[in-house]
């Protein structure tokens, strides 16, 4: 018998490699207990409904082949045990075993067992480490990391959607070239760094060689320069000694003149002192008066406070009196109305009683008349006894004959009587309703009167409230404005006082400072081109820069800025004429200002370095030029170290200053901040002190005024209290009004309407009743006519006998009289009843109580008025007393004011004497100042000469036995600042005066000149010689005097650089070799994989598409290093033009992705290939193509296991494994079926 198709395929596979035979599961996920799934054919399909456990089988295969827990859709390993999802695991462990059949037929069992949250790996039942387990799998071409045996659900779509870069990363993972990526990046970075270092060292070497050549040239130039410089030093020394010699002679002469003038000034100062003592005594007396005035002001303030305190009470009492008076008037009106109402009420009662008596008398008269009539007519028709008996017999006979008519008539009479009773009742009800309506009308009128009074009271209250609110609003706005302004003033005062405190400057307006200020004002007035002092027209942008700016500006801080040189000369001439001490001028058109070096603004290291000119604000902007001249390119730095670094260690030397005032000059001179530098820096704040003090005084005066306005708060609270009381009373009055309108008037009107409706209803019922009575009367008359006919027949003979026309004539006469009598009596009764009801109502109205109530109210209000008047009078008297007391205090204050004015006059006279004396002193002081200025000028000239000698590095000769010049220079340097104070300058001049210069080295003819012009001429000649030599030196480019040291340093640097270059070059070469080795390994690994997949993908795509016209290709964008960039995947579907992957349909993308999957599997084939629902996006045509390809691939390459839901696909498999669900204890249990399809493939059965 021929073997089956499946057996043939299995035999063919066994010739090449092994296969997966069984999967054994025990309590794994939805597989309860131990279940064996298999055997697996060459092409096996796993089918079953959704939720049956197919994916759990896929997870089981992944799990046993080493998959990580996070890819198995659980968080912990023990969640894989059956029942864990519902919290009832069936066991503490679970396991999955893959039975693999080797090519030689031997079975190898790979197991993974779960114990709690750990797993154990076993091979053929023996526990092994995970790396041993992985190595055993790799022996059969199953790689745990690469997962070359498994395609999860959705992986095909994921591959189809990858971009070119992601596709390149996927190839790196498959080829394992990614394992070399880190080493590749490190070696490449190292190589590039070393190559850059080598290039840098080469360039550095070239530069040092050029420096060496330049240094040799500089050595020769320096020798020539030193010789010429020595001759210049001799000429300079001679010039300085000449000028110092004649400067010393002038200083001695000026000192003698200065001494004489100081003695004269001292005498004048003593006399001024006596005048000042007299002024102090007067000022003390004036101060006492001022204090007394202040005390009186406090008393006045207290009186005003007491008046202000009583005034609200007075207003309150006045308001209450006015209110009570108005209320009293209203109460009197109400009393008058109540009395009128009571009088009317009594009159109405009297009228009703009179009417009642009248009706009673009429009733008595009528009764007497009826009695008399009865007596007169009683015997006219009196029958005899026999006739009466006959009458009764006939009456009985008539009754027998008319019994049925009598019954009808009785019924009609009964109905008529009922209607008559109803009519009478309705009539009485009508009378009652009319009486009630009248009472309600009276009540309504009274309520309307009361409502009118309430409305009048509300209107008067509203007017009073409006007036009070207007007053309250005005006072409140005044108080609020005062309060707000007080807060603003206090804030401004605090700021001003704080600013004054920070300045810490006491304004002692010395005569010299006043004169300087007066000078500026005079110059501005006389010469329009004068702008002012530089200090006054600029301001540091922040206080932190004040010390540094003060240091840099130095002597220019008080310089006078003007528009032109001409204006400056005119000012100087004016000052000479007025004998005013010299000032420094900065004419804007004469200043030679060097441009600002913009590169200095770009300094970022160290931080916060600024040009001094940039941290000063100036106004007007026209003085910017003078400020630039004074500051130059000076820089301000945060610290001393930063300033030193910027000055001397950043290329060209710069002038810098630190925030604390240490100045670094380009010449190398460093001057630290002096002790009084901060005090001098406060002069920036002094500019604002006058303004601040004036502002403080103005604010204090305004504060006093605002406090007076704020004291009206007490009055405001009183008015608010009154408004509140009025509002409360008005609220209750409004409620009373609303109650009267809603509850009384509305209710009264509603009741009247109800009574009116009831009256209309009663009248309507009366009409109906009257109509009914008329109808019944007609019926009664008809029945009576019938009875009368019978009665006339029966009584005919009897009537003839008694002489009447009919028996009714006899009966009617007797009955009519009785009925008339009854009607009349009823009329009298009704009238009396009506009057009696009205009397009862009127007597029930107690109008007298209302009169009594209003009389009591009027009396109470009258008493309250008297009380308020007394209280008002009392408060008014107290306020008048306080006013009188205030007037008395003000009178005393006037006397003190008069005395103060007298003292002011005396003080004025003393001041005039003091001013006169001050002028005398100023005149002497001016002469003294001229001598001082002259001395100061000469000493300054000497100082300048010594400084110039120091700056030019000249060694001035000293007398034998004196200290060396460098020691004296050291003392001078310690005492100097870049911008020293006057005290510091005096100390410096004193030190310089003690310099024992030896003028014997100066030629004798030069020391014997007597004429000042001759001295000046000789000095100019000597200066011209020096200038000539300087020009000669200037034409020679300044050589580097330290060129020899520079050459040695350059040669040493050259040796070090050459050694460093060689070392770097060798290391770069080794790094490049390492990089090339790693790059080659990575390239080979990547390209081996890429070439294999690229070669296989086109035939695989053609096989999948079942069309030789289909095309698929893979192209790297970087041919040299393809793993660095992208891999392009291009496909041409059968019958279509070339399209990008994004433009393909879902099925076409899936076919392309499958082609790439199988090409990758062919590069790194595993013995079996597990695919999960790869046909999800395919239609039936493509499913057939894929299924045919997989059958061919399985027969030739590897065992295929596919999970599928589509019959068109799984019907092509060799065998089916069916998974179906079952439920046990609310937990899913997967059951397994298997079915061999190979025999149907052979026979063609379905």
From TrEMBL:
Output the superkingdom of the source species.
Eukaryota
Q: SMC hinge domain spans which residues?
A: 528-647
Q: Where is this region: Disordered?
A: 957-979
The Gene Ontology biological process annotation of the record reads: cell division; sister chromatid cohesion
GO CC annotations on file:
cohesin complex; nucleus
Which terms does the record give in the GO molecular function aspect?
A: ATP binding; ATP hydrolysis activity; DNA binding
Q: What is this protein called?
A: Structural maintenance of chromosomes protein
Name its species.
Trichobilharzia regenti
